[in-house]
Amino acid sequence: MSIRVYLQKRALPSFLLLTCTCIPSTQVWSAGHYTTKTPYQPQQQATTYEAVPAGFAPIHTQLLARHGSRAMSGLKDDLAFLNLWRLALQQGALTPKAERLGPQLEKLIEANALMGYGLLRYSQPGYGNLSLRGMQEHEGLAQRMLQRLPELFAQIEQSASDSGQVPITVQHSGVNRARDSAQSFVNALILQKPGLKAAVDPRFVMGHPDDTPRHQAQTVNRFLLYFHRLNAGVDGVGLQASDPKVKILESSQRYQTYSKSFRVTQKIDAIQNSDVMRATAFSVLLRLFKPEFLMALDRGKVIASNTGTLSVTSKDGLYSALLKGDGRTQIRTPVQALFALSSVYEIAPGLQRELGFDFDEYFQPEEAKVLAEANDAEDFYTKGPGIAEDEPVNHAMAEGLLNDFFEQINHAHKGRFQASASLRFTHAEILIPFASLLKIAGLTDPLALNQTYAYSRSTWRGELIAPYAANLQWDTYRNPDGLLIVRMLYNEKETLFKPQCDPARFHPHSYFYEFKALMRCYLS
User: Fold this and answer.
1) pLDDT recorded at residue 182
2) Structure letter (DSSP) for residue 220
3) What is the reported pLDDT for 21?
4) Structural domain harbouring 368
5) Alpha carbons 82 and 440: distance in angstroms, whole number
6) 3-state secondary structure of 310
7) Which uninterrupted H or E stretch holds 438?
8) How many of the other CB atoms lie within 10 Å of CB of 407?
9) At 233, which CATH number?
């Protein structure tokens, strides 16, 4: 990579659109330890699903999906570790193994800064955007949904043609990568079945700023799809006390306070600053830096941060971006250096087509597993089931989303369309607490306060609960008598609702549940 300083941004060519890449997926479940940054793979073939009971036809499907694989969220750990590498280079403290790490980090920064260029119509290229793989993950989701429910989408197409209305509702959080995931998904639907273009309101591509109070666009729903960061000064403007959104806002604020509390942070710190983590840091870094440099870092004599001004330019020369580090991401200890390197290790598989390499060579499998366990621990306590005695603070804010799932089925049953679909695009911070609220067996069990998260103690894994493009789907069917049944798929695998809802199962071994009984089980 050639990094040039003080180049100016140029506008994207106006003809660039977010197009359907539609390259057949060859992804396999990752062999690395990438936690919630694991690229997506469906967990079951649709041909092995339980057969739909005789006499039932599909009337509705709904999807809650995390955005696909993406760039890093900001110029942080990548630049900080690059600056650490540069200090070692200046001091002659690099090992032969580390010599190409610096150029690889420069290439990563370039890829992040240009992410989405030439592909994303509504998002400025750069950090946080979907990668090509992320787009393809959502295209694949759409293609498999059509294959699973051909009758439903034929009826949706007909309903749109007959009524002039839109039977497919699309909502997202308002964040670029969620909106662009929605765009990729919808593009793939329409490419496979062009008549569906009339079934979707094209205004779903609208965004929503985090810091400006205003009425939300109909296609953006922060209360359902960004509830982990609701702000009274932004999202609470104009709400009446009787509005159900008030409860979601209050639950969000309690959660945000709790997730930063000493009760939570002490659990995370105990893992991330353990003797095992320190030993792992030295094991990894001694293969990159000479001992005297690493000891200087350990004694506080070496400090690196994400400072500096860089510029990158696209290969065609039509787009340039100026990057400036803010200095807030600092590396002052070997453990901090380890976690910074871990960040680039985890992000690379999702950028496979932009980078062409990964950072696996810098970690032994057991070292990567130690880091994954620590990263999973943080997500477990701050997003997941967490401390049993503190339930439901981590997932109470998802109750509005659960209500909406049931309401959408009621609307589909009683509404004007013979068939419809509800598509939602969001983030791991939404999908994880929603799964906890549903109490999906094996994926959502909390731990008592006197226990600390470890792989030996918990089955909760980021790569299982919320990889990139993780998704939860409910398919609803109806028979001539008006009886509704619902099946849930989690990452496209048939999944049972919580055990307390077993009486609602269509038969004792079925994945289908009677709708009214299921709703009573969760909402009563």
Assistant:
1) 97
2) B
3) 55
4) 40-523
5) 41
6) strand
7) helix 428-438
8) 12
9) 3.40.50.1240
Tell me if 219 sits within 8 A of 204, measured CB to CB: yes
Please report the pLDDT score of residue 129 as a whole number: 97
- pTM tops 0.85, yes or no: yes
* Res 309: pLDDT: 95
Contact indicator for 139, 81 with CB cutoff of 8 Å: no
In angstroms, rounded to a whole number, what is the distance separating the alpha carbons of residues 460 and 490? Answer: 15
Token pair 């990668």: residue: 131
Nearest to 420, CA basis, from 201, 140, 175, 174: 201
Confidence class for position 164, pLDDT limits 50, 70, 90: confident
What is the Cα–Cα distance from 415 to 486, expressed in whole angstroms? 17
Q: Which amino acid is at 200?
A: V
Pairing of strands 420-426, 168-172: parallel
- DSSP string of 343-407? HHHHHGGGGHHHHS--SGGGS-HHHHHHHHHHHHHHHHHHTSS-BGGGTTTTTGGGHHHHHHHHH
Of the candidate ranges 26-35, 251-260, 367-376, 386-395, the one whose mean pLDDT is the lowest? 26-35
Write down the residue that tokens 């992804």 correspond to.
Answer: 27
Instruction: Name the domain count of the chain.
Output: 1
The pLDDT confidence band at residue 203, using thresholds 50, 70 and 90, is confident
CA distances from 361 to 68, 287, 358, 404 (A): 25, 11, 8, 45
What band does 206 get if pLDDT is binned at 50, 70 and 90?
A: low
Crossing angle between the packed helical segments 399-414 and 515-523, to the nearest 10 degrees: 160
Return left, alpha or beta for 494; rule: phi > 0 is left, psi -120 to 50 is alpha, else beta: beta
**Would you say 40 and 137 are in contact if contact means Cβ atoms under 8 Å apart?**
yes
Rounded to whole angstroms, the Cα distance separating 348 from 441 reads 31
- C-beta of residue 34 within 8 angstroms of C-beta of residue 69: no
**Pick from 25, 309, 311: which is nearest to 143 by CA?**
25
Q: Would the pLDDT of 483 be above 70?
A: yes
Q: 505 in a domain, yes or no?
A: yes
With bands split at pLDDT 50, 70 and 90, how would you rate the model's confidence at 6? very low
Structure tokens at 410: 């009621």
Residue 298 lies in a domain: yes
The rounded Cα 88 to chain-centroid distance in angstroms is 35
The residues, ordered by sequence, that sit 6+ positions from 199 with a Cβ below 8 Å of its Cβ are 156, 157, 159, 160, 166, 167, 168
